[in-house]
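A student in our group prepared the protein record below, which I am reviewing. Here is the record exactly as it was handed to me.
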Amino acid sequence: MGHTSYEEAKRTVFRGLILLGLITVAEVFIALLGKGYVISGFYLPIWLVYLAMIGLSLYKAFFIMGEFMHLKYEVRGLVSSILLPFLLLVWAIIAFLWDGSYWHNQREDYKTEYEKEREGHIIDEADLEDQIKMLD
């Protein structure tokens, strides 16, 4: 894009913005269709919605990095030195979310009766009395 005229660069930016806007509209449509808001009673499988969202989001990310960060016009070594840390960052985010979800699920198993009651869980009074008798 460095050797193009102002008008050509402007046209390229507007095309990119229109493309990103259309992809975003497609993402919103898929999300609404998957939840049954577009066609009443019609739901998409959640894995299909997730796959479409991840694919479209990755396409937008690489398009932005290629066009607006000008990586499309750089040498392969520089692009690799930028994309590898980006992919490692994505991997780290997935790993931390996975680990945090596991930790949260393990913590749910060890909640006290008081914590469960505060969160709105129903406690059987007979079981609670039995536990109090066992403590005495």
